[in-house]
Amino acid sequence: MAMKWLRAAKPNVHASKSLTALDEPHALAEAMSHAALIMNDEVEKAEVELSKGTSPFHKLGTATTLFLRATLGFEKEIMEQAALRLADAEEAASEHQRRALRDPSTAHESKIYPRGSEYALCHAETQLMAAVVAVLNESLTESLRGFYKLRKAFTTLLEIIEAENRYVEKHHSGSTSSLSSASVDKASEAETSGTSSGVLTPVEKEDDEEFKDAVESASEQPTPMEYQGKLEYPDVDRLNLQDKPQTLEKDTSVNEFGTVNGAAGDAPPAYESSSSKRQADAEVDGFDFRAITDDPIDHFIHSGAAMCFGLLQLLLSMIPPAFGKILSIFSFRGDREAGMRLLWRATAFKNNINGAMAGLVLLPFHNAAIALCDIHRRESYPKERLHGLLKEMRTLYPRSIMWVLEESRMHGVERNLEEAVDILTCDAKTSSLKQMEALRVFETSMALMFLHRYEECAAAFQKCVHLNNWSHGLYYYIAGSCFVEMYRQCQHTDPKLAETYRDKAKHLLGQVAQNTGKKKFMARQLPLDVYINRKLVKWQHRAKTRECDLIDAIGVSPLEGMIYFWNGYKRMSPAHLQESMARLAWSHDQPTWPSEAVDEKAICAVLQATVLRNLGKTEEAKTMLGEHVFCYEPHQITACDQADNWPLPVAHYELSVCHWNEAGGQDGDVAKLKLCSDELAKVERWGSFELDARVGLKLTTARQTLTRTGIS
């Protein structure tokens, strides 16, 4: 959509690759206007229009379209194309930044930011996107390059932010910058002389040659057994957004990873007190950058820095625990709450691509992550604010399926899955972005699974196979598991129909092995691929041992296990929870149950306890865990054939949630909150277990919540 606040006299911005100070405002306005089409599901039109321009802003917009395709679809070919476009955009931004510094007449003069900051921002944005694409790449070497780019983008954004804060404090002493979470003085005191990163003075060439081909055999090494690394995320009371990266204050030699030595282990200084943290929060909420300047280029820099740095802070706070060592090498950490404050601030400019992207991050983060965590502060999910943001986004970008997905997720958060499915399926519009359409079908498939609408669910997941090539094995596994449930339901009432379902289940499950193991993340197999392959091997062994059909050898409902790991119980109404309880009770009714393996018995009890807890039957849930899970020692679980090793640590997590609920939340009974913390600590010390990343965000959120509540 047109950006009226960016309009300017229209010089010729296509005649040359080099912009002048006169060209720049219009080039930015034009590029931002076309880039906004992306958010309105007009991606092809955006690509066509953006390709007509040669400015760094146009190239950034073009690269963004491919980046979205790559991250939504995880398709190798698209990721390769995105990497090339991003490299081109990065080089253009770097060249214009160098020109701006060499020849001031070519650059916009801002009263707030250093000359060339708009290009430094473009450079940082391309580095951020390139880093994400690199980490999604199956190569370990490319992933390491990605973390290096993240580090550089982090430092660039920090310098832009500090420049803004210095201006605001000097000229508007009654305000505090929205990009600050503490005073600039505190950050200045943390610095030592002569330690500027020089990020706003771009180097002539990237240091990518520092990277040599990694030995991919390292991917075969086991995941670290110490679970403590999972909670290396920062305490939100410790991170000061104004801190200079500590690497820049010590040894400035460069190590083999292209980063500055002396980095590992450095942490930002803590707030002096919790009151200073609260004061910082209040200061952020009361700031309006548009009252400081009406310069559209300054608005672009401000909204872009807020969006990018906020997103980076958020992503770093969610990095999977297995990458903790890499993060320590690259010496940066994230702060989830500070990141969200920055993203909310960027949404003040939601009619440009920066603000819209901030909204696109905030809505799914809250609806698909925070809302599904069990232990969090009440204010962590600002329902009214999120509904207001979604309404504005749908008004500004009415054609986009992105916002349809978020509206559906909001209904899921409210345990109204039927309405969620209706929203996803009744809208006749189909996204022009194939990857977005695939995401809509996937979301529909998941909701149907939570609703126990098995036949529809199986069909939807089989449709996913033709729309997305990321995890076909998972799609076949869930579709096959749906027919397992239908087979069980009519096994004794309609044997002929049951046989039909059995055959379909066997056919679909037979497709799993040949469709897993092909995709890798940082040279490792996807955890869900490892999980479903092990389950199949387990069932095959059981079938051979028991001399029965594969489908009859399956233990506790595999679909209910999937529902747990995809947070389905948190979305279910009481009626659907009762349906899950009935599906789990099926195992108890089998004549083989008394001799069933203890890991299967523990799985069943953990899932039943989770259902009971979501039904509000906390005491019954605790009893279930105590009598049917904690009665087993870890060695008894792991001794089982192709053992599921996750029930015990997950049971401790579930018990912690029970204590949290009994306490009444963050301001409840301290003794109960302490019990909650004790159970979480057991999981934190457990070591690695299967699909531990599926509960990692819940654990991190829970620990941060308790810490803020004063419970250690």
UniProtKB/TrEMBL annotation:
<dbReference type="InterPro" id="IPR019412">
    <property type="entry name" value="IML2/TPR_39"/>
</dbReference>
<comment type="function">
    <text>Inclusion body (IB) resident protein that interacts strongly with lipid droplet (LD) proteins. Involved in LD-mediated IB clearing after protein folding stress, probably by enabling access to the IBs of an LD-stored soluble sterol derivative that acts as a chaperone in inclusion clearing.</text>
</comment>
<feature type="region of interest" description="Disordered">
    <location>
        <begin position="170"/>
        <end position="235"/>
    </location>
</feature>
<dbReference type="GO" id="GO:0005634">
    <property type="term" value="C:nucleus"/>
</dbReference>
<dbReference type="Pfam" id="PF10300">
    <property type="entry name" value="Iml2-TPR_39"/>
</dbReference>
<dbReference type="GO" id="GO:0005741">
    <property type="term" value="C:mitochondrial outer membrane"/>
</dbReference>
<feature type="compositionally biased region" description="Polar residues">
    <location>
        <begin position="190"/>
        <end position="199"/>
    </location>
</feature>
<feature type="region of interest" description="Disordered">
    <location>
        <begin position="256"/>
        <end position="279"/>
    </location>
</feature>
<dbReference type="GO" id="GO:0005829">
    <property type="term" value="C:cytosol"/>
</dbReference>
<feature type="compositionally biased region" description="Low complexity">
    <location>
        <begin position="174"/>
        <end position="185"/>
    </location>
</feature>
<protein>
    <recommendedName>
        <fullName>Inclusion body clearance protein IML2</fullName>
    </recommendedName>
</protein>
<comment type="subunit">
    <text>Interacts with lipid droplet proteins.</text>
</comment>
